[in-house]
Amino acid sequence: RKEVEQDPGPFNVPEGATVAFNCTYSNSASQSFFWYRQDCRKEPKLLMSVYSSGNEDGRFTAQLNRASQYISLLIRDSKLSDSATYLCVVTLNQAGTALIFGKGTTLSVSS
Amino acid sequence: ETGVTQTPRHLVMGMTNKKSLKCEQHLGHNAMYWYKQSAKKPLELMFVYNFKEQTENNSVPSRFSPECPNSSHLFLHLHTLQPEDSALYLCASSHFGGRARDTEAFFGQGTRLTVV
Description:
The structure holds two protein chains of two kinds.
Chain A: E1 4-6, E2 11-14, E3 19-25, E4 33-38, E5 45-50, E6 55-57, E7 60-65, E8 70-75, E9 84-91, E10 99-101, E11 105-110
Parallel strand pairs in A: 2-11
Antiparallel strand pairs in A: 1-3, 3-8, 4-5, 4-9, 6-7, 7-8, 9-10, 9-11
Chain B: E1 4-7, E2 10-13, E3 18-25, E4 31-37, E5 44-50, E6 53-57, E7 64-70, E8 73-79, E9 87-94, E10 106-107, E11 111-115
């Protein structure tokens, strides 16, 4: 079983749409969870951390279900600039010494 | 402007060559990482250094040799590589030892390596 699994997409949506990405992880010892964003031919950058209580940052909402080892990202009112690859990321171990990345889900928002 | 700088940005090398990738971070972090990103594959963790000590070696072939002389610099020495080693090599740094949720990694722009 892969450590972090994501639906690769691509997700092709019109502007204004709501889109949801899912992710599952295999290591129950993982303590920290993140969503990173990677634009074409650029380095990954942190989008948001994911907390057990769920967290929201503007149009973005992240949820974590530890029992199911499941993470989600919801994007509301999609913009053209949201087009990118979204990477689900978990820590390698309880010490959080390294990040393990999913393959990423590609989003394309069109006008 | 990124706080993590990688050089060179592009590298073409033959299978018998020896080259090195350099990474420098100006963020005061104490952990540094090498990742490999191949086409249509997820980012693969290669090496982890905490406080200059290697703490993770993710089954990387010995033709890749990391070096961390201090907490701000990280090298990846390359020798007798294979064409399948062609990929984007990304360096990252983070703060280790604080809250787990503060483990945000900052990436350099990467070195695009082509082995011919």
